[in-house]
Amino acid sequence: MAVYTKITQQDIDYLFQDYDGIEQIKGIAEGVENTNYLVNTKNQNKFIFTIFEKRTKRYDLPFFHKAMSEFNHKGISCPTPITVNENDIFNIKEKPCAIYSFIEGSQIQSLNNDAMVSLAKNISAIHHIGAQSKLSRENDMLLPSWKYIINKFKDYDGENISEFNYIKNLISSLESQFPQNLKKSLIHGDLFKDNIFFKNNEVSGFIDFFFTCSDTIVYDLATLVNAWFLHYENFNENYFKIFFDQYCDSISWTNEEKESFNFYLKASAIRFFLTRIHDKYFNKDGEVNHKDPMEFFAILQFLRKELSALICLFFIKRCLNSIIKVLRALLPSQ
């Protein structure tokens, strides 16, 4: 979330007449994708008013709205679009916009055991629902997005150029390695800390479904691992294990999915390095706190050196524990 497009209360008050009009609007500076305002109405309701900027396309909004409504209907706490005069997509200053229900809670400030258990239960619930969904949309933030950004930087010779060239060469080596036979589900696609709210160490809701698409849950989990348990080259192995132990109690991965995890950890890190460096140099307007692309370059270096072995050990231990449980069940009681 961010503020690229400035508006006044008068610009949108007509959309909130069913709520007695607007008491106050306030821009939300967090995030980098779209413009967001917190809207307080005169009858004491809260809403999020979102203006969609360059990356989110108007033609994708009906899909995103259906996805949010489906997740919400099946028990996931997440925003749903508000309809006004039978419409849920509007226009302001020649840009598409929408109104969403407000989700209580806030981003977690420090990880703990209870929060990780709650996070795992809620992510597994999203993945169970997504696996049954009939909605379908291609994930355009991997190869299509990579090629688009690389082309925009073809004449670039500034800061971080050596890292950018490293990523460009890495993409060339990974392009032909994308797994082809993994099951696709409806996934969130952007499971960062600022998109998952907590109250009292329990997940209170998910926001920002504007990268929701059909892809493997392995990619969704890879994004979460990079965002939650890695910070530059620091890996929080303890909370990673707590989260995955709980998650794997609800969701079983095939051998092919386990084998592809390291690939998708790299792919997700590339995705966020490229979009961050793109936004840093091409999206300079508005009140935006741009995030550091070098965080994900450092994560890629760590993945190359260390994490793949740790991930393999985790799955081996999980497998051994499962075998031990089976053997104990077969042994006669003493």
Architecture overview:
The chain is an alpha+beta fold and 334 residues long. The protein has nine helices and twelve strands. It has helices at residues 9-12, 61-73, 113-132, 143-152, 161-174, 217-228, 237-248, 255-282, 294-330; strands at residues 22-27, 35-41, 46-51, 90-92, 95-101, 106-107, 185-187, 196-199, 202-206, 213-215, 230-231, 234-235. The strands form four sheets. The chain has a five-stranded antiparallel β-sheet with strand order 1-2-3-5-4. The chain has a three-stranded antiparallel β-sheet with strand order 6-8-9, covered by helices on one side. Strand 4 (90-92) and strand 5 (95-101) form a beta hairpin. Helix 8 runs antiparallel to helix 9. The protein is globular, with a radius of gyration of 21 Å.
What is this structure, in a nutshell?
With 334 residues, the chain is of the alpha+beta class. It is 45% helix and 15% strand.
